[in-house]
Request: fold
Amino acid sequence: MIDTLENNDILITSNTSTAPHEILTKIITDVLAIQSSLIATRETANSKEGFLISLFNAEELMSIIQKGGRLIIAEYKTSETGKQTVGYLLMTPIAEFTDLLSNKSEHSAHGRFTPSFEFDFANHEYLYQIGVSKEMKGHRVGRRLLEYVLKNATSGILTDILVEPVSNDISLQFFYKHDFLDAGLLELGEYRSFGQLKSKVLIWSK
Ligand SMILES: CC(C)(COP(=O)(O)OP(=O)(O)OC[C@H]1O[C@@H](n2cnc3c(N)ncnc32)[C@H](O)[C@@H]1OP(=O)(O)O)[C@@H](O)C(=O)NCCC(=O)NCCS
Reply:
């Protein structure tokens, strides 16, 4: 467990398909380790702790990056251990989200979106996932990752957070705190191994 964290103990970098292959492979391995530690099932999901339901493999993550995605990572620097990846945020072109609605995604079926107001998907990037290692939770690593993305944003940002069968309350609060607004409800008849779900779609405007 980490007690206190200075701002300059954390290094944020953005990584795209132009990064050297071995660096990208190492980053993907680190990200998947954090991701798998945060994955919950319908039975274990805890709304007060936050959780993930999309577990990727290295091939899928590499393919998302090659299709224009970027992995923003947070590394914790210590004199003893060097650099350790402690959090990540995955941004993608909006198609990763809209494919859920047009049932083009191989991971979902029977998608339906009910917007709360009119907006154009085309003006948005998709924030697919954010995760912070459990030992670093609550130390503002998530905030640092999101602030980096918002500061460098060239368009609006859309994300979605599970609300049924279990509401990811911590994550909703996290995004509301950073000026994301409710933009509608996504319903999926099937999603990966999770089954049927509803998620709140949130958007942030530049
Ligand atoms: C949600 C998550 C990314 C937040 O990252 P974090 O580094 O723990 O959060 P931070 O320390 O940066 O907190 C930022 C704000 O979020 C809120 N927050 C974060 N954790 C909280 C908690 N346990 N209880 C209440 N509020 C919390 C606080 O309002 C905090 O505001 P502050 O900076 O003014 O104190 C992280 O907890 C996580 O990885 N959760 C599991 C995965 C997940 O749910 N991802 C979202 C779906 S894709």
